């Protein structure tokens, strides 16, 4: 169980858990879709976050699928809400500390917000790579 | 006072037994004894094939209860866990603690799946 006896679960987490926003998938084969798939080895949570970016570099849609604790689900749900409407570079600025603060995550669940930040970055990196695979290769070799 | 000590020791023995009985907790304990911390960093690009597999099994489990599919998944999880246990054992035997650490991280994902499967089988 992800609720520790004696600890109140922040209502923000409960809200995202019971009314998750943006659950689902986007077409990972679409050129303007970036897919980030990350896992937390310490707790075994897995998180998939996808973004759809328009021709102006703005994120117009986002979806997530997370299998793990309530805090992980809430963190990724919030992440999809936050990236919508941002440019790719703006979305890269989202920090796990912001997510944790918004959800009032207890210290023991801070890694969940970190996982969400990693998922955002992975999705955006995937999107960037799809736009310019040659550049991606050049950057890797550098 | 003696009863207190007995309770403490009894509790400790139970904890030790449970830790050593389960391959994952046993492996993690062995890592600890060797001064190696269990994996903490986020798994991403390098492990995308593995994570995709875990994601797919999770998605199947999330679907409405279907006895046949559950049995299929149960067998798959069991086979994977046995495979990983063998590989972890081999890693420890040749003192490859970093490999053991990686493999134990994989086992954690399957342990979670096993728990979810058990909960799914409980009549609702």
Automatic annotation (TrEMBL), chain A:
Q: Does the keyword Iron apply?
A: yes
User: Per the UniProt entry, what is one GO biological process?
Assistant: [4Fe-4S] cluster assembly
Write the record's keywords in alphabetical order, separated by commas. Iron, Metal-binding
Which GO molecular function annotations are given, in alphabetical order? Answer: iron ion binding; iron-sulfur cluster binding
Pfam family membership, one: NifU_N
- InterPro entries to which the protein is assigned, alphabetical: ISCU, NIF_FeS_clus_asmbl_NifU_N
Any one GO cellular component localisation term in the record: mitochondrial [2Fe-2S] assembly complex
Query: Where do the NIF system FeS cluster assembly NifU N-terminal domain residues begin and end?
Result: 12-131
Q: Which residues form the signal peptide?
A: none
NCBIfam families, sorted:
iscU
UniProt family annotation: Belongs to the NifU family.
The protein, known as: Iron-sulfur cluster assembly enzyme ISCU
From TrEMBL, chain B:
Asked if Cytoplasm is a keyword of the record, the answer is yes
| GO cellular component: a single term | mitochondrion
- Which Gene3D superfamilies does the protein's record reference? DnaJ domain, HscB, C-terminal domain
Q: What is its main location?
A: cytoplasm
Q: Name one GO biological process term.
A: protein complex oligomerization
Pfam families (alphabetical) = HSCB_C
Q: Does the keyword Plastid apply?
A: no
Task: List keywords of the entry alphabetically.
Answer: Chaperone, Cytoplasm, Mitochondrion
Tell me where it resides. Cytoplasm; Mitochondrion
Superkingdom of source: Eukaryota
Q: Where is the Co-chaperone HscB C-terminal oligomerisation domain positioned along the sequence? A: 47-118
* Single GO MF annotation: ATPase activator activity
Q: Which family does it belong to?
A: Belongs to the HscB family.
Kindly provide the name given to this protein in its UniProt entry: HSC20 protein
Its lineage opens with:
Eukaryota, Metazoa, Chordata, Craniata, Vertebrata
């Amino acid at each position: 169980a992800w609720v520790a006896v004696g600890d109140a679960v922040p209502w923000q987490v409960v809200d995202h858990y019971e009314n998750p926003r943006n659950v689902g998938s986007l077409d990972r084969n679409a050129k303007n879709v970036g897919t980030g798939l990350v896992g937390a080895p310490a707790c075994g949570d897995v998180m998939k976050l996808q973004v759809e970016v328009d021709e102006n570099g703005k994120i117009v849609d986002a979806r997530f699928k997370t299998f793990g604790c309530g805090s992980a689900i809430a963190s990724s749900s919030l992440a999809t809400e936050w990236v919508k409407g941002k440019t790719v570079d703006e979305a890269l600025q989202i920090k796990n500390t912001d997510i944790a603060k918004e959800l009032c995550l207890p210290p023991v669940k801070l890694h969940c917000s970190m996982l969400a930040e990693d998922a955002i970055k992975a999705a955006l990196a995937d999107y960037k790579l799809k736009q310019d695979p040659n550049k991606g290769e050049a950057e890797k070799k550098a | 006072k003696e009863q207190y000590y007995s309770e403490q020791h009894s509790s400790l023995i139970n904890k030790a037994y449970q830790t050593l009985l389960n391959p994952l907790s046993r492996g993690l304990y062995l890592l600890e004894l060797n001064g190696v911390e269990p994996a903490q960093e986020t798994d991403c690009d390098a492990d995308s094939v593995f994570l995709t597999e875990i994601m797919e099994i999770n998605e199947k489990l999330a679907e409405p209860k279907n006895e046949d599919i559950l049995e299929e998944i149960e067998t798959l999880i069991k086979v994977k866990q046995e495979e990983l246990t063998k590989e972890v054992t081999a890693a420890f035997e040749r003192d490859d603690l970093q490999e053991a650490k990686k493999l134990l991280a994989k086992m954690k994902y399957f342990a979670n799946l096993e728990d979810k499967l058990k909960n799914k089988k409980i009549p609702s």
